[in-house]
Structure formats: C-alpha cells, structure tokens
Amino acid sequence: MNTLKDKTIVLIGATGGIGQAVVSKLAKHGANLALGGRNQSALDSLADSARAAGAGTVSAQALDVIDEASVASFYKSVSDSFGHADILLYLPGMSIAAPVTDMDLSDYDQIVDVNLKGLFLSAKYYLPITQPERDPMLTFVSSQAASRANPNAPVYCAAKAAAAMLGQGLGLQAMSKNVRVTNFKPGPVDTDGFWGDRPVPREKFMQASDVAEVIEFVFSLPTHVVMHEVSFESFTFLKK
C-alpha cells in the first residue's frame, strides 16, 4: 500500500461532515493538509484537531469555490506553504429539492456552480502545482445521482452527471502530467449540512466515516493503480 505520510493533500469543503471525517483519517497517517472551506474559524478549529491527531504541516484558508480569484488565492497559498500538492479532494456539493417549475434561476445557478464550476476551478489551479514524480491524484465526490436520476432533485442529478463527465475528461488530459483521477460516487450519507429538515430515512444512510474509509483506501493504493470511479452505498438503504 502507498504511504500517505508527508503527502500534501488539499481538501476543499473540509469542514463539512465528510470532510471532517476524512481529515481525521488522514491526520493519523501524518499527511500534510491544506484545508479549504467557507468558514475560517471552523477551518482553524479543524486544523488544530488535525495537528493534535498527528498530521504534519496543516494550513487553513477560507475560500469561495465558485469565485476564481478566491480559488486562485487559495492555491497560491498552498504553493507558497508546501511548494506542491500531491492529492486534491473536492468535496462541496449542494442540492435543492424542488420541482423545476418552482425553482428560481438563482437556485439552478447555485447548484450547477457549486457542483460543477467549483470542481473546474479547483482542477484548474491544482494541476499546475502538481509534480509528476510524486504520483499526484485529483479526486472528487459526485453521487449515485450522477447515474441514477431521481424526481426530487433533477438539477442536482444533472450537475453531478456533468461533474462525472468532467472528471473523465480530466483523467484523459491529466494523464500526461502523471495525474490519476478518481470520482467517488456515494449513495445517501447522513450529514446535517446536506439534508437539512428534508423527510428522508437518514437512519438507513451511510455515515460520513464510511465514506472516509473508502477515500482513505483509494488514497493508499499502490501508485500504479487508478480507480476511475468508485460507486458505493448503504446496503440497508438499498434493501429499503
């Protein structure tokens, strides 16, 4: 297995439920972490926890994932602090459950921007600070909804499907820089920030820690192995 000690790992959306679980896993490997999210105080607290858990160097900077200047500033900070980045994990995702006839255009824009534009911008500024000899990885979290539509959030399904296709194209482009691309496609995960007060059977969903274990496993694979797409979900939920 590939060791993650001293790897520089960029986590965008680090303070979300899945992000926090992944940070906890990676810190125990002694990885260097560059944490990005919306709230600086939450990032600072998470960075302190990561250091206490055994992480190497940890940086934390707030950013707006759909603002190019903000994303560029974040990655400049990563480059200045670490000199390079080995792994990117793009986590942000949002959904608004509504009939298309009731959805404002601003809601549509926000869903598409967070799920697709944010990944595009993060990839754009991550790739130039990779080093081919360090076997870099570009990874992101899409969803089972990328390939299995539902009637509750069709715009979200479309945005995640587009992100999945962007990832496939990035995998082909980035191959020349020795970058492996992985799309994580989990089923429903019990996180507060995503579901809010929607009446869904969260007791049947996966936990954030389940997703973190899958991500940790893929990050630790031998560097000659690439997982293009990892689809997984709660067996309890699947059985209904």
TrEMBL record:
CDD domains: SDR_c. It comes from the Bacteria. Keywords: Oxidoreductase. Coiled coil: none annotated. Belongs to the short-chain dehydrogenases/reductases (SDR) family. PANTHER family: DEHYDROGENASE/REDUCTASE SDR FAMILY MEMBER 7B, DEHYDROGENASE_REDUCTASE SDR FAMILY MEMBER 7B. This is SDR family NAD(P)-dependent oxidoreductase.
